[in-house]
Design goal:
The protein is mainly α. Helices cover 77% and strands 2% of the residues. It has six helices and two strands, in the order ααββαααα. It has helices at 13-43, 53-86, 107-135, 143-175, 180-190, 193-234; strands at 90-91, 94-95. Strands 1-2 form a two-stranded antiparallel ribbon. A hairpin with a 2-residue loop joins β1 and β2 (94-95). The radius of gyration is 25 Å and the shape is globular.
């Protein structure tokens, strides 16, 4: 049995295979789940509901998530199988000759994946905003109350978009310098942009979900009160 060749200088086979394998197992699982989810969305909807902004945004969000999943799978699989090729492992009787990990994907690929992931979360919270507007339509409120209701989520989304552009600009500048991957990793961990996005997303989710659930609970309580009143009147 032939001994696998030693790794190139600075490369450890196990250190590279492990994160790539984790990415494939976790990322691909979530990506595959999106396919039956998209089918169910069209199966349980009708022609009228498919014209609604919420449905359109849901479809766009699922397609965006699927695109990001494919990009992640492609990156992980290329690293994993290229290492198998370097180890001269036989796959279906042939040695895989895919890209070498010594020539990884450009850092711009990672920036695009991160940007699409951030856009996806903003899409999700935009769907929650439309849900708020559906339970508190403008025709049932004065415009002052409606503006007060949607001001916080709208301002948070504007702030998140601005923060995303600033983050992309910082990542792009870092990618142009020497040792781009290490610089990007340090910027990703130390820069405040991600923390700002997480905090804004948390506040946005809590506010939108609380308002939406409160509206549903209030309407349900009113219906129960009306039904109880009708029963008492009949008695």
């Amino acid at each position: 049995m032939s001994v696998p060749p030693p790794p190139p200088p600075g490369l450890n086979y196990l250190a590279v295979i492990q994160p790539a394998l984790i990415d494939i197992m976790i990322g691909h699982t979530f990506t595959v789940i999106l396919v039956p989810l998209l089918i169910a969305m069209f199966y349980f909807s009708n022609e009228h509901s498919r014209r609604q902004p919420i449905f359109i945004l849901n479809v766009l969000n699922v397609c965006l998530a699927f695109s990001v999943g494919i990009m992640g799978d492609s990156r992980a699989v290329s690293i994993f199988y290229s290492l198998l090729a370097m180890l001269e492992i036989n796959i279906s009787g042939k040695v895989n000759t895919m890209l070498s990990p010594t020539h990884p994907y450009p850092v711009s690929y990672d920036i695009i994946m991160g940007t699409l992931g951030a856009v996806q979360t903003i899409f999700v919270d935009t769907i929650l905003l439309f849900r708020i507007c559906s339970v508190y339509p403008l025709r049932y409120l004065t415009w002052q109350r409606f503006v007060l209701l949607v001001s916080l989520p709208v301002l948070l989304k504007v702030a998140r978009v601005i923060n995303l552009f600033l983050f992309i600009a910082a990542l792009t500048r870092a990618a142009k310098g020497p040792n781009a991957e290490a610089t990007l990793a340090a910027l990703w961990a130390a820069a405040p942009y991600l923390k700002i996005e997480w905090f804004a997303q948390l506040v946005d989710n809590i506010y939108a979900s609380s308002v939406f659930l409160w509206a549903l609970w209030s309407k349900r309580k009113d219906k129960q009160g009306s039904a109880t009143g009708n029963v008492k009147c009949k008695v």
